[in-house]
Specification:
- The chain contains 26 helices and eleven strands.
- By secondary structure, the chain is an alpha+beta fold.
- The strands form three sheets. A six-stranded mixed β-sheet has the order 1-9-3-5-2-4.
- The longest helix has 24 residues, at about 180-205.
Length: about 575
C-alpha cells in the first residue's frame, strides 16, 4: 500500500479536527483518556518530546469506505461533517489536544466534570516544566478564567495559546500600568523571552504524519489492508477488532451492528453471561458463525467484507445458534460438553464451528450419526489441543470437512484421522503429564462434570456447592512422602497431574486437609454410597482400591485407564 510520510503542525491538526476536516472512523472507540493522561501529553509537547506519529486516511466524504463521526468535543451536526481525512492512529492524542485547546463541555474519564487546562508562566520562568501544566474543574475555576486573575497569577488557559500574541499584549498593557519598573527591569528582559520560547514550542510543535491515499468503497483488498493496519495498532491499550471495523462498514448501509449486538445479549442469556455484554470476543465469534453459515472464510479479511445483503437475518440466525452451542457446551448431561462454568470452557474459538454445525443439523434434519460426528470433532479437538493459537484456517476447514462428512459417509475428516491415529490407536497417548490448566485439563474436568460428580462428603451434586478442582491425594500428604533415600518422592508435576484432580466442595476439601485417602474415605465418605460417589469422579473399583491402600501410582494408572475409556466412547463413531 502506498503511503506518504510528512510532518504537520500539531495545532493545524487540532484546527482541522475542530472544523471537521479530520474525523474518526465509526469503529474507533470513545475517548478514554484521564486528565492525567492529557496533562502528561501536554507536558511532553511542552518539553519537545516525541509523542508518536499520526496515521491518516485520505477520503472523499461522499464515498468514504468507512462511516465516520466527529472527534469527541466537536459540536457539528453529522450532515455537516465532510472530512478530508480519517484518523486511524492518534485518536486519543488528537482528541486530548483538542480538549485542551478548545475546552469542550464534556467530562474526562473517571469524572463527571469537564476540566480546563492552564499553563503556569511562573513555573515556566523557574524552568519547572513538569509542574507547569495543571487543570481545574470547570465549576471550580471561574476565577482562573478572569483575565485580571490570570495576569496577577501569571497563568494562561490553553484555549488562549492559539491567540497568544493577543493575550500577551493585553497582559503587557495591564502590567505597565500595575508595575512599570517590573515591566522594564525584569519582565521584558527575563520572563518574556522564556515565555515566548515555551509557547512557541507548543504552537510550532510538528508531528510525523503518514497519509494513506483514498480507497474506493468496492476495493476489498485495499480495505482489508487498512483493516490489517487497524488490528495491529493499539495506542490506547484497547485493541480494535474486526467487529469494530465491520461496524463502520455496515453503518453505511443502514445496518447498526452495535444495536444488533445489544439486542442479541438481551435475548440470549448465555451469550450475555459469557461475553459480559461486550462484543470484543463474542461479537467476533458471532461474525465467524455468520460467515460459516454463508460458506465463507472466517479470516479478518473475509469478515470485514461480509456482504450487507440479508445481514440482519443471517446475524439473528448466527447468534441463535451461538446460544445453542453455548447451551450444549455448558450442559452436564450425557450429550453435553460439561463446561458448567466459563473458566472450564476449553476453547471459546471452537464455538462458531459448533454453532454452524448445529445449524446444519437442524436445517438438513440430520440425526444420530451427525451428533456423534460432532462429539468426535469436539472432544478430539480438545484433547489434541487443535484450537490453540491462530484458528481462522482450522475453523473453516473443520466446518467444511464435517458438513462434507454429513453428506458423504465415505469422506473422512482430517480431525477424525488425527483422533484415530494420535489418541485411539496411540499407546503412548497419556494424560499423566497434564498438570497445568489447559484445554486437556479442562476437558478432563468437563468429563467429570458430565458423570454427575457428587461431593465426597455430602454425596450431593456438585452443582449445588461452591467448588473447585482439588487434589484427590492431598498435596500436603504427597509432599511428605519420601523415597528409599529419604528424598522427596513426588515433584509438583506428579502431584498436580489432572489424574489427581477432581471437583469437590471447598468445605469438603478443607476437612480432607492433609489426610491420606484411606483415612478420609473412612471418616468422611458415606460408606453405603462410597462406590457410587467415587464412580461419579471417574474413580472405578480399581482406582478406589488403590485409594484405600494409599497407592498413588496404582491410583493414577487405574484412573487414567477409566478416563480414557470414557473419552473413547465419544471418539468412536
Amino acid at each position: 500500500m502506498d503511503i506518504t510520510p510528512d510532518k504537520k503542525r500539531l495545532l493545524d491538526l487540532v484546527n482541522r479536527a475542530q472544523s471537521g476536516e479530520i474525523a474518526l472512523p465509526e469503529f474507533q472507540r470513545n475517548f478514554v483518556w484521564t486528565r492525567d493522561d492529557v496533562r502528561d501529553l501536554l507536558t511532553s509537547v511542552l518539553k519537545g518530546y516525541f509523542i508518536g506519529s499520526f496515521l491518516l486516511l485520505k477520503v472523499d466524504a461522499e464515498s468514504s469506505p468507512f462511516a465516520f463521526r466527529a472527534i469527541a468535543g466537536v459540536d457539528m451536526p453529522p450532515d455537516q461533517l465532510k472530512p478530508d481525512w480519517l484518523i486511524l492512529d492518534g485518536q486519543q492524542r488528537l482528541t486530548s489536544l483538542h480538549y485542551a485547546f478548545a475546552a469542550p463541555e464534556i467530562p474526562l474519564k473517571w469524572t463527571k466534570y469537564p476540566y480546563r487546562f492552564f499553563l503556569s508562566l511562573t513555573k515556566i520562568s523557574e524552568g519547572d516544566l513538569d509542574e507547569a501544566i495543571f487543570s481545574e474543574r470547570i465549576d471550580q475555576c471561574e476565577s482562573y478564567l478572569d483575565r485580571e486573575y490570570q495576569y496577577k497569577n501569571r497563568i494562561v488557559p490553553f484555549t488562549e495559546l492559539p491567540r497568544w500574541e493577543d493575550w500577551l499584549n493585553d497582559y503587557e498593557r495591564w502590567l505597565i500600568e500595575e508595575d512599570k519598573e517590573y515591566y522594564f527591569n525584569e519582565y521584558f528582559r527575563k520572563h518574556k523571552p522564556v515565555w515566548n520560547r515555551a509557547v512557541d514550542t507548543i504552537r510550532q510543535f510538528y508531528v510525523p504524519t503518514i497519509e494513506i491515499p483514498k480507497i474506493k468503497t468496492d476495493d476489498k483488498d485495499r480495505i482489508a489492508e487498512v483493516c490489517a493496519i487497524f488490528e495491529k495498532l493499539n495506542s490506547t491499550g484497547v485493541p480494535l477488532s474486526v467487529y469494530d471495523l465491520l461496524t463502520a462498514r455496515l453503518y453505511r448501509f443502514g445496518i447498526d451492528l452495535h444495536h444488533l449486538w445489544k439486542q442479541a445479549v438481551e435475548d440470549h442469556e448465555l451469550l450475555r453471561q459469557f461475553s459480559g455484554g461486550e462484543p470484543d470476543l463474542y461479537g467476533v465469534l458471532a461474525l465467524r458463525t455468520l460467515a460459516l453459515l454463508r460458506g465463507e472464510e472466517v479470516k479478518s479479511k473475509s469478515l470485514i467484507n461480509l456482504s450487507p445483503q440479508d445481514f440482519e437475518k443471517d446475524w439473528k440466525i448466527a447468534v441463535l445458534y451461538l446460544e445453542k452451542a453455548l447451551k450444549r457446551v455448558t450442559s452436564t448431561s450425557s450429550d453435553g460438553f460439561g463446561a458448567f462454568e466459563q473458566r472450564w470452557l476449553p476453547y471459546s474459538t471452537m464455538i462458531p464451528v459448533l454453532a454452524a454445525l448445529l445449524h446444519r443439523v437442524d436445517r438438513d434434519k440430520l440425526g444420530d450419526r451427525a451428533y456423534r460426528g460432532i462429539k468426535k470433532w469436539y472432544w478430539g479437538s480438545v484433547f489434541l489441543e487443535r484450537y490453540a493459537g491462530s484458528v481462522e484456517s482450522i475453523t473453516f476447514a473443520d466446518y467444511r470437512d464435517l458438513i462434507t462428512w454429513f453428506e458423504n459417509p465415505n469422506h473422512k475428516p482430517l480431525v477424525f484421522e488425527q483422533v484415530d491415529r494420535n489418541i485411539l490407536t496411540n499407546p503412548s497417548f497419556s494424560l499423566r503429564d497434564t498438570a497445568r490448566v489447559n484445554a486437556v485439563y479442562r476437558g478432563v474436568i468437563n468429563l467429570i462434570a458430565i458423570q454427575g460428580a457428587k461431593d465426597f462428603r455430602t454425596g450431593d451434586s456438585i452443582e449445588f456447592h461452591s467448588l473447585d478442582d482439588h487434589h484427590i491425594f492431598p498435596r500436603a500428604y504427597l509432599e511428605g512422602r519420601k523415597d528409599a533415600e529419604g528424598k522427596r518422592k513426588y515433584e509438583n508435576r506428579d502431584i498436580n497431574t489432572v489424574l489427581n484432580r477432581t471437583l469437590i466442595s471447598q468445605a469438603t476439601n478443607r476437612q480432607i486437609s492433609k489426610m491420606k485417602p484411606s483415612e478420609y474415605l473412612r471418616r468422611l465418605v458415606p460408606p453405603e454410597r462410597k462406590e457410587e460417589i467415587m464412580s461419579s469422579h471417574l474413580i472405578d473399583r480399581a482406582a478406589l482400591s488403590a485409594l484405600e491402600r494409599d497407592d498413588y501410582e496404582g491410583f493414577l494408572a487405574a484412573r487414567e485407564k477409566k478416563i480414557m475409556e470414557v473419552l473413547s466412547r465419544y471418539l468412536k463413531i
